[in-house]
Amino acid sequence: MTKKKRENLGVALEPETPIIPAAPEPALLQEVVQGASLQNEAELGTQWVISIDGLEEKLSQCRRDLEAVNDKLDREELSPEARRCLEKEQNSLMSKVSNYEKELKLLRQENQKNMLLSMAIFILLSLVYICWTS
Questions:
Q1: Residue 128 and residue 69 in contact, taking contact as beta carbons nearer than 8 Å
Q2: Confidence of residue 78 (pLDDT cuts 50, 70, 90)
Q3: Is residue 23 part of a domain?
């Protein structure tokens, strides 16, 4: 759908320039988890936060756009072509929301695994320090 058609239909447009950097691709995230692309843990933590925040922002924008499309479909009399176009946009937004939710779930699971691993390492090092200094 072109920008002009969207404006005529009153569908919310996606921002021209993203406010938050785009989330890395899942394949890149897998490399990050394995330590292949980032050297230190501070960069890794920052990358996860940016990825989760970016996906949450995209998800909320898609939900707002979906709500606007649903309102437009429910409240206004539309020509068959305009209705078809909005329904197509609605399906597209619903699939985007679904994909973003899946990616966000995976990121949160990886984040939880990393947090548990960090806690285990911290506890292990604390025990070694306590045993060493006793």
A1: no
A2: confident
A3: yes
Structural domain count, the chain:
1
Range 26-40 average pLDDT: 48
Structural domain contains residue 133: no
Q: Which residues, other chains included, contact 11 with Cβ-Cβ below 8 Å and sequence gap of 6+?
A: 1, 65, 68, 69, 72, 86, 89
C-alpha span between 115 and 111 (Å, rounded): 6
Nearest to residue 60, comparing CAs of 19, 26, 88? 19
State how far the Cα of 38 lies from the Cα of 32, in Å rounded to an integer: 6
Instruction: Give me the long-range contacts of 43-51 (CB less than 8 A, separation at least 24).
Output: 44/114, 48/107, 48/110, 48/111, 48/114, 50/20, 50/21, 50/23, 51/23, 51/24, 51/107
Containing structural domain, residue 28: 3-107
